[in-house]
Amino acid sequence: EFDELCFEFGLELDEITSEKDIISKEKGEEKAKGASDVVLYKIDVPANRYDLLCLEGLVRGLQVFKERINLPKFEKIIPAEGEGQRLIVTEQTAQIRPHAVAAVLRNITFTKDRYDSFIDLQEKLHQNICRKRALVAIGTHDLDTITGPFTFTAKAPSEIKFKPLNQSKEYTASQIMDLYRTDSHLRHYLHLIENKPRYPVIYDSNGVVLSMPPIINGDHTKISLKTRNVFIECTGTDITKAKIVLDIMVTMFSEYCEKPFTVEAVEVVHPNGKTHIYPELAYRTEKVKPEYINKKVGISETPSSLAKLLTRMCLKSHVTGNGNHLEIEIPPTRADIIHACDIVEDAAIAYGYNNIQMVIPKTYTIANQLPLNKLTELLRLDLAAAGFTEALTFALCSQEDIADKLGTDISATNAVIIANPKTAEFQVARTTLLPGLLKTIAANRKMPLPLKLFEISDIVVKDPNADVGAKNYRHLCAIYYNKSPGFEIIHGLLDRVMQVLDVPPNEENGYTIKAAEGTAFFPGRCAEVFVKGQSVGKLGVVHPDVITKFELTMPCSVLEINIEPFV
Amino acid sequence: MAGGNQGTLRLLERLDQPGASGGLCSIQAAAELGVDHQTLVGAVKSLQALGEVIEAEARTATRWELSPEGEEVLRDGSPEVRLFRSLPEEGLPQGEAMKLPGGSLGFSKAMANKWVRLDKGAPGGPRVLRAVPSVQDTVQEHLGQVRTGGAQAVPERDRSELKRRKLLLEMTLKSYWIRKGSAFSTAVARPETELTPEMIATGSWRQLPFKPYNFSSLGLPPACGHLHPLLKVRSELRQIFLEMGFTEMRTDNFVESSFWNFDALFQPQQHPARDQHDTFFLLDPAEAPQLPPGYYNKVKKVHSQGGYGSQGYRYEWKVEEARKNLLRTHTTSASARALFQLARQKFTPVKYFSIDRVFRNESLDATHLAEFHQVEGVVADRGLTLGHLMGTLRQFFTKLGLILIPSGLKKWVEVGNSGVFRPELLLPMGLPENVTVIAWGLSLERPTMIKYGIKNIRELMGHRVNLQMVYDSPMCRLDV
């Protein structure tokens, strides 16, 4: 039943499990002993629905969807002049983490579950929209342990000294970095500020360190179940996301304040003297025509029915102007709604995808094949008919495969080089199909001889004239592997290919082969293929060194040509 | 063949002699006829193929033979006896005893038999002395018995001991017990195996008997080439798209700029997919020399400031980020290029498809490779709806032999991905505002693995493919 509800709401119930199940699956039953049996529902939430990341938001969303409650109106309370909290941003932050926003949750009541959820939401946001704290980092503090105004600045690591969260003594910022170098969780964030001359830090008016974002909070200000007033700061490199994160934090947890759904504003003072009041908690109104929604989804609902569907999706809507328009209020929890098409999507979810009638578009078109692919398809059939078997090898390979092993230098290959390969198998894009075929034979040495293989696929080379600086070429490569090299067989295959391509064997308007050299070929056993005077590739007996380097033992001959001139 | 024929005839004649009425053992018959046993078995088999001429019952016989070492022992005596006999009355120091005929093997066997003893306390070191006055070489005797065909007379225990000592070999011999059959005749004409041009010319085939064919064995496989199963599915999918009126898009650039791969698709620059962990970036050429002038400014604007009715992502869009070259992570980049070209001219509705390689910097396992094929379909027309998307998908997947339970888009994601392109993607290209573009994608490998029952993707794509699998794979008929 819950599965169905999730589905109707556009979510996917991934798994029903428990802590015990998870641990026993990952670490074995022994370790799971004593773990909780409480049923856990794992739900897949769309990546941009930050309002559904915690139980508070999910329950609220489902309640609204089931029309049990109305979406609460979130209210920003601006304290009287001189009584509110202020966060002063200094210009030193500009080089490292220029943005900061903040808010206060007054008279909040935590329970164990609420507290856990509060911490968990921060972690989920950090991993998700905050891009592992690179864009935004959240700090939450017990306001009663500190005195404003607060200062967000950046200092040399040696000048920052405080007791980090859950530590027993003070460390300098440099020592803190060393301390967490092996921390399974925090070590992933160190690179964000390490090697920078100054680290970001937030102080209160007495010099107490609130946090050193994006690494760690101070121990002094840590929140507990007893905390009543929470100071939330979000610092980062992306102001839009910082604002969204702050809005999500306060809209989710202001529910537990003495005056539910109210948030106390904080004034942020910028280095240029300008001030901003946060959280934004902005409500935006979008006007959308009902027929726009109906047309995009493929339904014909009345304006009022659409308004009701949208309201159930936390997008409070009503019909205006003789029913010609819907006015939709986008709450601060729905930062994902950035265009009318997002409203359409929510209407479709609420309507139910299953209820939408499937229609085949009337779009009338004549199909065309890409000429190069059409030629490839035809050639594949003729090569198989000639007794060769198709291989399908990787477009990525090691430098060695296309250079050293073929007796040439990588600089001579003009190959595209990959910056971040996880293994040597993905260092470059291939510039020839030959290594792939040789490797295929090496992996199939137990098969009866002769082995006759071909592949028609793309190779890649650098080309400064191409818009991306590299270009694909469609190559045909065939190999004959047996106790004797069988040059005449590969030569015969070339003749057959030219025959089916309707290219006659002559110099003027057909093809010829001329003795040539190639590092991959046995000297005197290599020829270049010319079509209408233009070189398209080579054929010949593979050099014994190449055979050995690809861990093969038999002689073989190959043909490799570019087929693009034949399109 | 002639020799075989002769063997057959001689066997039949031997069977016809008085005294063979109870049957013959093939081994014995071979010895009598002076032919190799294997030749005789061939004759038996060819006679069996003729029907009831003979009856042959398969038997298994065990024969004991001496190994080369056994022959040596038969000639010279067993090592233990040779040692014992060479040992002088007063014995020898252990080191010297080891050098006697029979050596250390003989010594240890003689010790085990308690024929000799070792006096550890003897002056000048341990000394080997006789422990019994005389011994009998039963090993040699037993081997002699076996040699003269009396293996059965040797007690079983001793036989297996001799086998363990590798002096005796146990040979299993398959033989036949041959009797006359109900249609026995010594005048069996050798039936012809094949029709020949001469028989046709002379008409002799009318009088000749022909050997029956064995229809239960397999024929000779034809010498032929084979297409790769994954590419057979690719051909089939191309066919399906063509049947549905879809035109093939250009996809001939594995190298793509981040601009076309991400930015043009309204993918923000901080998106996790743009991480080093998921995408192959290029060292050389690291950057795309050209971004489409004019259009890239519009993309920049819609990301950083919004427009076209969108709020945008409101972040600082960096052209350096867009120029970063990569190996395309999806063919949607090619679709974006095709739509951009479409927007250059007066709009006409289109249906596009592509099937080509894409690359992910992923950890490899049984279902993930760093490169695979993506299948993509795109329809651009005025007034397309979600209902049209779902209708198109149903039509497509039905042709693929996958009947979809109409349970909405979310469930279809299991097979692939589908959706409606955002206005932030289409309008900066210059497509008319009322044009909707629906699209879907899936991997080529997934349906292929299902179709051909392949569990490990590495057996399907790449050089580690098993060519036998390629040789043996059936044609691809997805709708059957």
Automatic annotation (TrEMBL), chain A:
**Cofactor(s) demanded:** Mg(2+)
Q: Name one GO molecular function term.
A: RNA binding
Where does the protein end up?
Answer: Cytoplasm
Q: Which gene carries the instructions for this protein?
A: FARSB
- Domain (B5): residue spans on this chain: 281-358
Q: What top-tier enzyme class does this entry carry?
A: ligase
User: Which family does the UniProt entry place this protein in?
Assistant: Belongs to the phenylalanyl-tRNA synthetase beta subunit family. Type 2 subfamily.
Report keywords, A-Z: Aminoacyl-tRNA synthetase, ATP-binding, Cytoplasm, Ligase, Magnesium, Metal-binding, Nucleotide-binding, Protein biosynthesis
SUPFAM superfamilies hit by this protein: Class II aaRS and biotin synthetases, PheT/TilS domain, Putative DNA-binding domain
Native organism is Catharus ustulatus (Russet-backed thrush)
Question: Transmembrane stretches, by residue range?
Answer: none
- Pfam annotation, one family: B5
Where is it predominantly found? cytoplasm
Q: What is this protein called?
A: Phenylalanine--tRNA ligase beta subunit
* Keyword Ribosomal protein applies: no
User: Known Gene3D superfamilies for this protein?
Assistant: 3.30.56.10, Bira Bifunctional Protein, Domain 2 (3.30.930.10), Phenylalanyl-trna Synthetase, Chain B, domain 3 (3.50.40.10)
From TrEMBL, chain B:
EC number of this enzyme: 6.1.1.20
Top-level taxon in the UniProt lineage = Eukaryota
Ordered alphabetically, the record's keywords are:
Aminoacyl-tRNA synthetase, ATP-binding, Ligase, Nucleotide-binding, Protein biosynthesis
Q: What class of enzyme is it?
A: ligase
Q: Which SUPFAM superfamilies match?
A: Class II aaRS and biotin synthetases
Gene Ontology cellular-component annotations: cytosol; phenylalanine-tRNA ligase complex
Cross-referenced PROSITE patterns: AA_TRNA_LIGASE_II
Q: Name one GO biological process term.
A: phenylalanyl-tRNA aminoacylation
**Residue stretches making up the Aminoacyl-transfer RNA synthetases class-II family profile domain:** 232-480
CDD domains reported in the protein's UniProt record: PheRS_alpha_core
Instruction: Give this protein's Gene Ontology molecular function annotations.
Output: ATP binding; phenylalanine-tRNA ligase activity; tRNA binding
Q: Which Gene3D superfamilies match?
A: 1.10.10.2320, 1.10.10.2330, 3.30.1370.240, Bira Bifunctional Protein, Domain 2
| InterPro entries, alphabetized | aa-tRNA-synth_II, aa-tRNA-synth_II/BPL/LPL, Phenylalanyl-tRNA_Synthase, PheRS_DBD1, PheRS_DBD2, PheRS_DBD3
Identification of the protein by name: phenylalanine--tRNA ligase
Task: Please name the source species.
Answer: Catharus ustulatus
Q: What is the lineage of its organism?
A: Eukaryota, Metazoa, Chordata, Craniata, Vertebrata
Q: Which gene encodes it?
A: FARSA
